[in-house]
Specification:
Largest sheet: 8 strands, mixed
GO molecular function: ATP binding; DNA binding; helicase activity; type I site-specific deoxyribonuclease activity
CATH superfamily of the largest domain: P-loop containing nucleotide triphosphate hydrolases
InterPro entries: EcoEI_R_C_dom, Helicase/UvrB_N, Helicase_ATP-bd, Helicase_Restrict-Modif_Enz, P-loop_NTPase, Restrct_endonuc_type1_HsdR_N
Mean pLDDT: 76
Shape: globular
Number of domains: 5
Strand order of the largest sheet: 21-22-20-23-24-18-26-27
Strand content: 15-25%
Protein name: DEAD/DEAH box helicase
Low-confidence stretches: 320-326, 349-355, 578-632
Number of helices: 27
GO cellular component, one term: cytosol
Distance between the termini: 67 Å
Helix content: 25-40%
CATH topology of the largest domain: Rossmann fold
CATH architecture of the largest domain: 3-Layer(aba) Sandwich
CATH class of the largest domain: Alpha Beta
Number of strands: 27
Keywords: ATP-binding, Helicase, Hydrolase, Nucleotide-binding
Length: about 800
C-alpha cells in the first residue's frame, strides 16, 4: 500500500484510530470522529440566507461522555506529522480541551496546553499514544482535583435517550461550574448570551450536583431555582427541568396547566397550600422571587425555610437587581448564605449600585453574543435607522400654542427625550406605525412576530391603537393581531404564552415598554422596533436578544431591528459585545443623537453618576406595587405633523462587520459586483429570453429593485434602474420606451388582430411594467379577453412559436435605446 496515495479519511481509519484503540480508548464510548461543534455562521444577503462552513474536529476523545480531554487533527500522508497542530490548537481553545494532537498516519505531534509537560510539544510514535488514565491524571493535576472533587466532576450528565446533546459551549459552561464548585467555590457566575440555552445549562449543572453523593453526603440535596417571570418558571418545569419529576415543585398557591414542547398538557406540582404553608418534602423548588418575598415582613415566605435548608440556589437573569445590596433577591441570597449560589446572566451589570462580579466573583465561563453569531447558533440582524424630523430638529411650540386640554404649551425646545414621556405628538406616533406597517408589507410577511418597545405603558397603548388602524384588514381577521402586553394589562399578559409559542399565529404585533425586554423566549420574533431611548447597555443587549434565536422550522435565520430613537448608537460602544468588565460610569443620561455617531462619554472616564440611572428601574414588573406619587402629566399637542428625513440600512457583511450605506449605494455596489460593466449587463439582458429571470435572480440575492425605484420616485423598469443606478446611464421611463417603439412602427408586418395584441402588450408594459410578455397566460386577462380566445390570438401569429418570436422582437425593440 502506498501510504502517500491514501486520503485523509483512510489515514484516520487505517492508522490513527487503531493507534488510539491500542492505547486503551473505548471506540464506542470515548472516541468520536468528525465532530461538528459549530453550526456555521448565518450569512444574510438581502433575503438570501446561507451558512458559513461549520467547524469540525477530526477526533475528540472523552474521558467520560461530555468531558472532552483530547483532540486530534488528521492530515493525509503528503503532509508532515505536525502540519495540523495549529488548526488543532485553535479548535482546542474553543472547546477548552487541554491535550492536542496532530497526525499524518506516521506518528503524532503532541501539544500539552496545561503547560505541565516538558517539553510542551513533542513527537510521538504511532504506538506511544497516551492512555485514558495517563491523560486523566494530567487533567486532574491541571485542575487541582482530589478524590472527593473528582467524583463530583465525573458525575454523569442527564441523557434522556433522545440523542439531544449539549452544545460545545454548554459543555464548557457546565464543566467550568462543576469544577469550580467541586473545588469549594460557593459563588459562581455564568455569562451566556440570550438564546444560548442558559436554563438547559443550569439543568445539567443541577442534575449532576443533585446526583452526586459527594456533594452532600447526607443525601438531602435541596435546590432553589429563582426567576422573576412566571412564564420562565412554568416553561422550565415542564421542559428543561422535567426529568426531576416528582422531586420538583413550584412555590406557588396557584394551580396551573401548562403545555410541554411535545404538546402534552401537565399540571404543575405546587409546594404551597392555600394558607401558604410549605411542603418541605420536595428536593427541587422553583419560585418567582416576588412570590416568596416583599416589602412587608409577612410576605417574606423564604424565612419559613431554615437557613441551611437549601444546598444550591440558582438565580436566572441575575443582572436584574439580584446583586444590589438592598434588593429583594439579595435578601434571599443572604438568608441562605451557606448554600452554593450560581448566577446566570446574559449581561453582567456593573455600576456603583449593582455589581454581580463583586458578589459572585469573576465569571467562570463567558459565551458572548458575538461568538454565538459567529458560530451560527444565534441569528444575525439587519438594522434600519429612521430619523424623524421632530426627533432630530426638536419641536418648539408656536406662541400661544394650546394643548388638547386647552392649556398653553410651555415655550421651550422639546426633543427626543421629551416625546411620549412628557409631550405627545400624535402625528409622530402615527408616522411610526405607518413605517412599521410599510416594512411588514414590503417584506411580504405581515405575520412575522414583532415587538415594539415604547416609552411607557401609555405610549404602548397609543402605539397599539395606531397599529390597529394601519392594519385594520388583519385586525378584522383576528382582533389579537395587535396587542399591548405590559405589566398592568392582564388581557395582554394572558396572551404572552401565545406570542412566544411558534405554533400560535396570534398575536402578531405586540407593543410593550419593558416587560418583553428580558427573559421571554420569543423564538420566532423576526422584527424588533425601538421607539424609546435605551441608556443602558445591559437592557440594549437584552432587547437585541429577543430576536437572536434561530428557529429553523419556521425558517427564521435573521431578524430586523428598526430604530426610531438612535438607540443603536450602542453598536459603536466597544462594550457592546465583549467579555464582561466593570463599568464605573455607565453614561445612562448620555445624549443618543445623532444616532450615527458613537455616544459621548461623561466627563472623566471613571466618574460615577450621583444617582442610579433610569435603566435600574423595571417599570412593567408584574407582582410589584405601582410607584406612589403623582403620575407625570403628559401634554398632548395635535396637528403638529412629522415626517421622515432620512432612512439608512445597516447590514452585516461577510466578515460580520456592520456596514452603513444608503440604499442607492448599497444597490450600486451589489450590481457592480454582478455586472462588471454596462456592456456586460447589456449582453446578459439581450441574451435572456425571460427578462424577468434576471430580476428574480437579483431578488434572490437580496436586491429588491422595487425599493430603489420607490426611493428614486421614478417610473422606471428594472432595465433602466440597473443602467441608471449601477452605470449612471440616463434612464428612460416605461412610457418613453413604449412611445419610441410606436414611433418606429415595428408591427406593420403583422395582421390586424396580431397588431392589436402587440399594441395591448405594449400598453401592459407601459402601465404595469410587465416583463414576461411571452407568457401566454397574459392573454387570459383584459383587454385580451375582448379580442378573442387565447387559441385565436396565438393563431393570429401562426402558432405559439410565432407569438413568442413576435414578443421577443417587441422586447428587443423596447431596449434598442440604452442611453
Amino acid at each position: 500500500m502506498d501510504k502517500r496515495s491514501l486520503t485523509e479519511r483512510d489515514i484516520c481509519t487505517k492508522f490513527i484510530l487503531p493507534a488510539v484503540k491500542r492505547a486503551g480508548w473505548d471506540e464506542m464510548v470515548q472516541v468520536r470522529e468528525e465532530v461538528y461543534f459549530t453550526k456555521g455562521r448565518i450569512i444574510v444577503r438581502g433575503k438570501l440566507v446561507t451558512r458559513g462552513k461549520a467547524k469540525k474536529a477530526d477526533f475528540v476523545l472523552y474521558y467520560k461522555p461530555n468531558i472532552p480531554i483530547a483532540l486530534i487533527e488528521a492530515k493525509d500522508n503528503s503532509h508532515s506529522v505536525g502540519d495540523g497542530i495549529q488548526q488543532a490548537l485553535d479548535y482546542a481553545e474553543t472547546l477548552k480541551i487541554p491535550f492536542v494532537f496532530s497526525s499524518n498516519g506516521d506518528g503524532f505531534a503532541f501539544h500539552d496546553r496545561t503547560g505541565a509537560s516538558s517539553p510542551r510539544e513533542l513527537n510521538l510514535g504511532l504506538d506511544a499514544f497516551p492512555s485514558p488514565a495517563n491523560l486523566w491524571a494530567r487533567y486532574r493535576a491541571w485542575k487541582g482535583l482530589n478524590g472527593e472533587s473528582e467524583e463530583i466532576v465525573l458525575q454523569d450528565y442527564h441523557d434522556d435517550g433522545s440523542g439531544k446533546e449539549p452544545r460545545y459551549y454548554q459543555v464548557n459552561a457546565v464543566n467550568a461550574a462543576i469544577e469550580a464548585i467541586a473545588k469549594g467555590q460557593d459563588r459562581v457566575l455564568l455569562v451566556m448570551a440570550t438564546g444560548t440555552g442558559k436554563t438547559y445549562t443550569a439543568f445539567q449543572i443541577i442534575w449532576r450536583l443533585w446526583k452526586s453523593r459527594r456533594w452532600n453526603p447526607e443525601g438531602n440535596k435541596r435546590v432553589l431555582f429563582l426567576a422573576d417571570r412566571n412564564v420562565l418558571i412554568d416553561q422550565t418545569m415542564v421542559n428543561d427541568f422535567r426529568p426531576f419529576g416528582a422531586a420538583m415543585a413550584k412555590l406557588s398557591t396557584n394551580a396551573k396547566t401548562i403545555e410541554r414542547q411535545d404538546g402534552i398538557s401537565v399540571n404543575l406540582t405546587l409546594a404551597l397550600d392555600r394558607k401558604r404553608r410549605i411542603d418541605t418534602a420536595f428536593e427541587v423548588y422553583l419560585s418567582l422571587y416576588q412570590a416568596i418575598t416583599g416589602p412587608e415582613e409577612r410576605q417574606k415566605l423564604f424565612k419559613e425555610f431554615s437557613k441551611d435548608f437549601f444546598d444550591l440556589i440558582v438565580i436566572d437573569e441575575c443582572h436584574r437587581g439580584s446583586a444590589a445590596e438592598d434588593s429583594a433577591w439579595r435578601e434571599i441570597l443572604t438568608h441562605f448564605s451557606g448554600a452554593t449560589q450560581i448566577g446566570l446572566t446574559a449581561t453582567p451589570k456593573e455600576t456603583e449600585y449593582v455589581s454581580n462580579t463583586e458578589y459572585f466573583g469573576e465569571p467562570v465561563f463567558t459565551y458572548s453574543l458575538k461568538q454565538g453569531i459567529s458560530d451560527g447558533f444565534l441569528a444575525p440582524y439587519k438594522v434600519i435607522k429612521v430619523h424623524i424630523d421632530r426627533d432630530v430638529e426638536g419641536y418648539r411650540p408656536e406662541k400661544g400654542q394650546l394643548d388638547r386640554d386647552g392649556n398653553e404649551v410651555e415655550d421651550r425646545i422639546y426633543n427626543a427625550k421629551d416625546f411620549d414621556r412628557t409631550l405627545v405628538l400624535d402625528d409622530r406616533t402615527l408616522l411610526t406605525a405607518k413605517k412599521i406597517t410599510a416594512f411588514l408589507k414590503e417584506s411580504g410577511d405581515r405575520y412575522q412576530k414583532t415587538i415594539v418597545f415604547c416609552v411607557d405603558q401609555e405610549h404602548a397603548a397609543r402605539m397599539r391603537q395606531a397599529l390597529i388602524n394601519e392594519n385594520s384588514d388583519l385586525v378584522t381577521e383576528n382582533a389579537r393581531y395587535v396587542m399591548r402586553i405590559t405589566g398592568s394589562d392582564k388581557e395582554g399578559q394572558d396572551q404572552l404564552g401565545n406570542f412566544i409559542d411558534p405554533e400560535s399565529k396570534w398575536p402578531v404585533l405586540v407593543t410593550t415598554s419593558r416587560l418583553l425586554s428580558t427573559g421571554v423566549d420569543a423564538q420566532t420574533c423576526r422584527l424588533i422596533v425601538l421607539d424609546r431611548e435605551i441608556g443602558s447597555m445591559t437592557e440594549f443587549k437584552q432587547i437585541v436578544g429577543r430576536g437572536t434565536r434561530v428557529h429553523e422550522d419556521t425558517r427564521k435565520f435573521y431578524f430586523t431591528l428598526i430604530d426610531f430613537r438612535g438607540a443603536t448608537a450602542h453598536f459603536a460602544d466597544p462594550d457592546f459585545d465583549g467579555d464582561p468588565v466593570q463599568i464605573y460610569a455607565p453614561g445612562a443620561d448620555d445624549p443618543m443623537t445623532p444616532p450615527d455617531e458613537e455616544p459621548a462619554r461623561p466627563e472623566g472616564e471613571d466618574a460615577i453618576p450621583p444617582t442610579p440611572g433610569e435603566d435600574e428601574t423595571i417599570v412593567d414588573q408584574p407582582g410589584l406595587p405601582l410607584p406612589t406619587g403623582d403620575p407625570v402629566r403628559k401634554i398632548y399637542v395635535d396637528g403638529v405633523g412629522a415626517r421622515v428625513i432620512a432612512e439608512r440600512v445597516e447590514y452585516l457583511d461577510e466578515n460580520g462587520k456592520l456596514v452603513t450605506e444608503s440604499l442607492r449605494d448599497f444597490t450600486k455596489n451589489a450590481l457592480r459586483k454582478r455586472f462588471a460593466s454596462l456592456d456586460e449587463f447589456l449582453k446578459r439582458w439581450n441574451a435572456a429570453e425571460r427578462k424577468q429571470a434576471i430580476v428574480e435572480e437579483l431578488e434572490a440575492e437580496g436586491l429588491a429593485l422595487d425599493a430603489i425605484a420607490d426611493e428614486l420616485g421614478k417610473n422606471l423598469d428594472p432595465f433602466d434602474l440597473i443602467c441608471h443606478v449601477a452605470f449612471d446611464a440616463k434612464p428612460l421611463t416605461r412610457r418613453e420606451r413604449a412611445e419610441n417603439v410606436k414611433k418606429r412602427d415595428v408591427f406593420t408586418k403583422y395582421g390586424p388582430q396580431a397588431r392589436a395584441v402587440l399594441d395591448a402588450l405594449l400598453e401592459k408594459y407601459r402601465d404595469e411594467g410587465v416583463l414576461n410578455l411571452d407568457d401566454a397566460n397574459v392573454l387570459k386577462v383584459t383587454p385580451f379577453t375582448d379580442m378573442g380566445s387565447v387559441v385565436q390570438l396565438i393563431n393570429a401569429f401562426g402558432g405559439k412559436a410565432g407569438f413568442e418570436k413576435a414578443v421577443h422582437e417587441l422586447q428587443d425593440a423596447l431596449y434598442q435605446e440604452t442611453a
